[in-house]
Amino acid sequence: MNYNFDEIIDRRNTNSLKFDFAAQNGRAADILPLWVADSDFRTPQAVIEALAEKVRHGVFGYSDTRDDYIEVLQKWFSHRFNWHIDPEWLVKTPGVVFATCTAIHALTKEGDAVIIQQPVYYPFSETVKINQRKLVINQLVYKHNKYSINFEDFEYKIIKNKVKLFILCSPHNPVGRVWTESELVRLGDICLKHGVTVIADEIHADFIYRGFRHLVFANLKPEYTDITITCTAPTKTFNLAGLQISNIFIANKDLRNKFNQALAQSGYHQPNLMGITACQAAYRGGEEWLDALIEYLTANIVFLRGFLQQRLPQIKLIEPEGTYLVWLDFHGLGLNNQQLEDLIEKKAGLWLDSGPIFGVGGQGFQRINIACPRAILERALKQLEQAIN
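^ thats the sequence. predicted structure below, dont judge the formating
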């Protein structure tokens, strides 16, 4: 099938967080948003039809999943990642951040230490701090336009702070790394050695570019399976974030029981009917659409790379290995953080995600969401070029 990812869909006046809440966030109403991590593409037709069928049925009562739901998940993860999941492992939640908070409640107490690798998805630090846990940072190493892990610092911080939990971002948001097997194994072995449980946020696992391969952390060794809470969702993959459905896999029965107890204490029980429906339809009938989308995003990266090299050489692209969230290095402009914010928002009229919100190492960077029609990306880059020149 041919998919028209160039179609510009007007998302304004749809209660879109991305498009309809600029004024509430202190920004101009006509600002061009390329920030929050949803895409501007229509979800696969199979999903639309499945949801329409539910709407025509007209009854939206309490709902839950049956055997065919887990069977679709098993097929997807086996086919794309060679990961064979047991139905007993599955716990459904409204989102990965919700699941992360639930795991923090279930497996730690106030004052316990949780380690993350900044610059990283900012809700990680927020969930740790708002739950009165101790935030420990293993800063990623930025060298020659690429990020790597300081393993010595990682282990030292775990020992020094008696870390209980590690929140792994894989693939990494925002720096775009798809961690290699040797990197993941080295992290995993350190966690095993020191009794650290791993929350593996793998929500972007479906967006991997040519030459790279996503490895499910829990699948690398049986010992990792036993210490890992793997967080997945169809929401980034198929643009379903508003339907609030995530699939969390916990093989260790004791960890799963503790997680389920914390989940019950939150008052959450059955998942959203439309989330269930969309997830099942997407994993069953959306693979061809996804493969076409990855090709389109690859072309967006090629366009972005060429534009920066030819017209904005002061801005460096951190080559993305995965995700549709691209990390840009603005240090070449020689601006402080406030000057950079003013340039992007007030002069270029763009709403990006500011680097500092991702934690240490974020100064001088911006995150841009390229999951949009190329004409929108081109418009954004031209506005940025005009503002700089």
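The first helix runs from residue 45 to 57.
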